[in-house]
TrEMBL record:
<dbReference type="Pfam" id="PF02174">
    <property type="entry name" value="IRS"/>
</dbReference>
<dbReference type="InterPro" id="IPR019748">
    <property type="entry name" value="FERM_central"/>
</dbReference>
<dbReference type="Pfam" id="PF00373">
    <property type="entry name" value="FERM_M"/>
</dbReference>
<feature type="domain" description="FERM">
    <location>
        <begin position="23"/>
        <end position="326"/>
    </location>
</feature>
<dbReference type="InterPro" id="IPR051567">
    <property type="entry name" value="Unconventional_Myosin_ATPase"/>
</dbReference>
<dbReference type="InterPro" id="IPR019749">
    <property type="entry name" value="Band_41_domain"/>
</dbReference>
<dbReference type="InterPro" id="IPR011993">
    <property type="entry name" value="PH-like_dom_sf"/>
</dbReference>
<protein>
    <recommendedName>
        <fullName>FERM domain-containing protein</fullName>
    </recommendedName>
</protein>
<dbReference type="InterPro" id="IPR002404">
    <property type="entry name" value="IRS_PTB"/>
</dbReference>
<dbReference type="InterPro" id="IPR035963">
    <property type="entry name" value="FERM_2"/>
</dbReference>
<dbReference type="InterPro" id="IPR000299">
    <property type="entry name" value="FERM_domain"/>
</dbReference>
<dbReference type="InterPro" id="IPR029071">
    <property type="entry name" value="Ubiquitin-like_domsf"/>
</dbReference>
<dbReference type="InterPro" id="IPR014352">
    <property type="entry name" value="FERM/acyl-CoA-bd_prot_sf"/>
</dbReference>
Length: 337
């Protein structure tokens, strides 16, 4: 194996001092639960991903990723790096021009999070553990932030399902619906009706869905939105000035199909670039840049966002996934040419 790049982490030192043969680390999951997973000095992030998937009994480890969340920033962990090398990075990387201070990594507050990263082969009902642990808790916030384009009937139905998830069969909670609208309806649509109108329609949907369990309501929610083109997409607010035909502020959206630019005011798609048309892409500071190949020429798109490095990492992960899929499906006779 490749050598470690950084000195031992405090957890490794503690294990040696306590003569402990095993090290366990807490991994946080999107459904607000956590698990303890055994790690060693030579555990890579890829190996840890497989270990977590096996411990959770997921149908496949593919498509998931490890993240480190410190204060308000969440960073994706490199699959090829050692887990304990990654754990030291937030504390060990000093700001430029500043004297390096002795930092005890155990005093740095951060969480290690395991979540769905690449949304391919996600079919609601196929893997219930994945649906309940990852897909539902990750998709609900996107829906409530108003990223999807949907009809009133969609919102009534989904509002009824989310209300059932919140209260189960406790009908005495109907009176609370007007106060719960931010948990039931997309933020940009709440003002479209009075709270009482929302309440009446959500109750009507809830009654039609009578007899289903909380778990079934979660799967039904996923099943309904899985047909939408923006299902499983990651949304980033960006500012651009290079394309006069596009709005100044855009949603830069990444899905299994490619990169889409959407007008956040009316949720209309401006353009969609499949990954095979993106020739180059990179981030520097708060700027992200990509070159797109068209039938006539190549076009360069530049945007400004505080999540530039996250965008680069996510595109790289999707491209890598498709390249690996090609290697698997390539006929054996072509593998040696």
């Amino acid at each position: 194996k490749e050598p470690r790049k950084l000195p031992p982490h405090q957890a490794e030192v503690d294990a040696i001092q306590q003569d402990s043969p095993k090290i366990f680390h807490k991994i946080h999951l999107p459904n607000e639960t956590d698990i303890l997973v055994e790690v060693s000095s030579t555990t890579t992030n890829r190996e840890l991903r497989y270990s977590i998937a096996a411990q959770l009994s997921l149908s496949s480890p593919e498509g998931y990723g490890l993240y480190m969340k410190a204060t308000h920033k969440m960073v994706s962990l490199d699959e090829d790096q050692y887990f304990f090398d990654n754990l030291r990075l937030p504390a060990d990387v000093p700001k430029k021009g500043k004297k390096v201070k002795e930092v005890n990594p155990s005093n740095v507050l951060f969480l290690v999070i395991f979540r769905r990263k690449l949304w391919f082969n996600v079919i609601p009902g196929k893997d219930l553990i994945a649906d309940l642990t990852f897909h539902f808790p990750q998709e609900v916030p996107r829906y409530l932030r108003g990223y999807h384009s949907c009809t009133n009937e969609d919102m009534f139905n989904l509002g009824g399902l989310l209300f059932r998830v919140a209260v189960d069969s406790d009908r005495s909670q109907f009176v609370m619906i007007p106060r719960m609208l931010n948990e039931l309806i997309p933020a940009d649509q709440i003002g479209a009706m009075s709270p009482e109108e929302w309440k009446k329609n959500i109750i009507s949907s809830y009654n039609r869905q009578s007899g289903i369990t909380v778990q079934e309501a979660k799967i039904a929610f996923l099943t309904e939105i899985s047909s939408w083109p923006t299902f499983g997409s990651s949304f980033f607010d960006v500012k651009q000035t290079c394309e006069p035909d596009y709005p100044l502020i855009l949603w830069f959206t990444i899905s299994k199909k490619g990169v889409s630019l959407i007008d956040p005011k009316n949720k209309e798609l401006q353009v969609m670039h499949p990954f095979n048309r993106i020739i180059e892409y990179s981030s520097r500071g708060n700027f992200f840049q990509m070159s797109i190949r068209t039938l006539v020429k190549s076009v360069i798109f530049v945007c400004e966002t505080s999540q530039a490095s996250t965008i680069e990492d996510l595109i790289k992960s999707y491209v890598r996934m498709y390249e690996e899929q090609k290697q698997i499906t390539r006929p054996r006779k072509n593998m040696f040419f």
